[in-house]
Amino acid sequence: MKKMIVIAVVLAALIVVGYSCGGGSSSGSSGDTTVKHIAVDPYIVGAKFFEDLDGDEVQDTGEQLSSLTDANGLFTFSSPLTTGSFIVLSNTVIGPLHNGVSYTGIVKREVTSITESLVASPLTTLLANGWTAENVVDVLTGAGLAGITVTDLTKNPMAGVNDLTAVTEAELVQIRSSIAIYSFLSIMDQIITGEGYALTYITFTNYAVTTTPALQAMVTSIKTCLSHTLLATIKSQMDGSGYTLPSVTAGDIIRTSVAMADWIIPQVVANPTGFDPTPSLPLYATMSYQLGVNFYIIRNKTNFIIQGALSGPAPSNPLKDNAIPGILTRDTLGVNDLP
């Protein structure tokens, strides 16, 4: 009889332990250790997010931190998130990168599910700032990015596009929108005190004389720097090199567009209401072409790649000059150090 009681006690203890560890509880198994979230602008590497429970965008004691984001922007939390809270890029971690350079922006996302992967991007940042999805779509469409939809706003804008070797306008609209809003919020962070990445729709409309031209300028620039024409031009360069080379992908020109945006942002900040990118678009196209080839080389570092880039029928030799003014140099790209 005593033996039976001991066995029963042991079994009960095992059941309790199993339940507390999530083995018998659906709420426990929804912990974010098994749910990978995505930070994309494009992918943000080496960052952490905190769960903002009270919505003050300040990391308070007891608000959990995520793991470091990996090369694909993926991160997890050790405990289940709370629906209605926000995940916010933490400023306590030094060194987050996007596109290989320091990332100083703020990205956030409202927690709408504790069991699904959440995408945190510039587009979700506007939603977390209280913009309605219709507000965001209307503003982007008015700025020249037709085709973006309400359901696009919480998706990963890189998904299904990064590895494409040919793209259409429709396939580029999500990532163009994300980069445009990143650029726009970075501009606003410098010209509207106290708003910046917390920009609300009300403030946007109140400052329309400043905000609308700034956004339109970035959209115009980005559409030149991130286009199916640019991808086709670089692909033609590599295909005509005489070597069998890896494919040029949309990821190469996405990285190009972000680098160009970072270069153009301070120009718009200096003249947000009067900056006109139109006269500079041919220059932007040339610089984007050069950068695109260089990013392709970085991704595929081999002698064949360099020889292909140098020998193909290009509009200009992308590696002829030592520097692309104001953006990257050959040394930065690592070209001179390649075997």
What does this structure look like?
The protein is mainly alpha-helical. It is 45% helix and 8% strand. It is built from twelve helices and eleven strands. It has helices spanning 2-20, 26-29, 122-128, 133-143, 169-191, 201-206, 208-225, 228-239, 250-270, 281-299, 303-311, 330-333; strands spanning 37-39, 44-45, 49-52, 74-75, 86-89, 97-98, 101-102, 108-110, 119-120, 323-324, 328-329. It has a three-stranded mixed beta sheet. The chain has a three-stranded antiparallel beta sheet with strand order 2-6-7, with no helix packed on it. Helix 5 runs parallel beside helix 9. The protein is globular.
Annotate the secondary structure layout.
Elements: H1 2-20, H2 26-29, E1 37-39, E2 44-45, E3 49-52, E4 74-75, E5 86-89, E6 97-98, E7 101-102, E8 108-110, E9 119-120, H3 122-128, H4 133-143, H5 169-191, H6 201-206, H7 208-225, H8 228-239, H9 250-270, H10 281-299, H11 303-311, E10 323-324, E11 328-329, H12 330-333
Parallel strand pairs: 1-9
Antiparallel strand pairs: 1-4, 2-6, 3-5, 5-8, 6-7, 10-11
Helix pairs in contact: 5-7, 5-9, 7-9, 8-10, 9-10
